[in-house]
TrEMBL record:
This is Bifunctional protein FolD. Belongs to the tetrahydrofolate dehydrogenase/cyclohydrolase family. Its EC number is 1.5.1.5, 3.5.4.9. Homodimer.
Length: 272
């Protein structure tokens, strides 16, 4: 069974409406990329569509020197929010360099060192938006307190961030983060109330990992021969599991959260 995301979307739209009513100018975001992979193109397409929907001035900037560009745009008053695509092509920079450099007030994806630190202190404002998306969808399905949640994948922006936000005091889920070296993955996933899968392997999760009735949040965006697949096998869709679809699931909410964050950044920009 497919998990519907319309309630989560409605709540985000309400939040956007409230912020919008406080703004007098059109918020502006830029997406900077030195590496237009298929996954990045897909995200940028989604960003453009959703930015238009909410009245955000959106542009893509292609560059081969992200650090140079960030030094310029970080202090540009006309720009409210900045997105930097990953993975980076320019190997002179590490992701942590970008995370240290990006102006935290414009960090709509919540990946800067400052905002990640705030998240660990359980203060969520700009948090990694893909992880926030997965959590918002899951919270709409169940009360998380005391639930066993298995997170497959330990990436900074999804697995790690989702785990930290799930176990914080006002959610109090019991979280297991797994990785490619985990020995007894099936034993863990079989006991889970919910599984968040973010490993970037097309249709990796099959039904022998999961007991019926489990909630599955599919974060995967995998392009194979130009076609989009999630991390969950489509064999599970018509069975007794609850699954977020790809496309039209986590990705849609992620893009909407990114836009909500542009509005938040625009408010911060006024106050500066
Ligand atoms: N700094 C950074 N953060 C990211 O989160 C990031 C990134 N770089 N680089 C690329 C990947 C890929 N990614 C997608 C997210 C949503 C959709 C999405 O919304 N896709 C639509 C489908 C669009 C289509 O059909 O092409 C959907 O799922 O409904 C796609 C791709 C985020 N990534």
């Amino acid at each position: 069974m497919i998990i519907k995301i319309d309630k989560v979307l409605e709540k985000l739209e309400d939040e956007i409406d409230i912020i919008k009513s406080k703004l007098i100018k059109t918020p502006k975001m830029i997406s900077i990329s030195d590496n237009l992979t298929s996954a990045t193109r897909s995200y940028l397409k989604s960003q453009k569509k959703i930015a238009n929907k909410y009245g955000i001035d959106f542009s893509v900037i292609e560059t081969d020197d992200i650090v140079k560009d960030l030094n310029k745009y970080n202090n540009d008053k006309n720009i409210d929010g900045i997105f930097v695509s990953r993975p980076l092509k320019n190997k002179n920079y590490q992701e942590i360099d970008i995370a240290r450099l990006l102006n935290p007030n414009k960090d709509i994806e919540g990946l800067s060192v400052y905002n990640m630190g705030e998240m660990v202190y359980e203060n969520e404002y700009f948090v990694p938006c893909t992880a926030e998306s997965a959590i918002k969808i899951l919270e709409n399905c169940m009360d998380l307190e005391g639930k066993n949640i298995v997170v497959i994948g330990r990436s900074i922006n999804v697995g790690k961030a989702a785990a930290i936000m799930l176990e914080r005091k006002n959610r109090s889920a019991t979280v297991t983060i797994t990785n490619s070296r985990t020995k007894n993955l099936k034993e863990l996933t079989m006991k889970a109330d919910a599984v968040i899968v973010a490993i970037g392997k097309a249709e990796y999760l099959t039904k022998d990992f999961i007991k019926e009735g489990t909630y599955i949040i599919d974060v995967g965006i995998n392009f194979k021969n130009g076609k989009l697949f999630g991390d969950v096998s489509k064999d599970l869709y018509d069975k007794n599991y609850y699954i977020t679809p790809v496309p039209g699931g986590v990705g849609t909410i992620t893009s909407t959260i990114l836009m909500r964050n542009v509005f938040r950044a625009a408010i911060k920009n006024i106050k500066q």
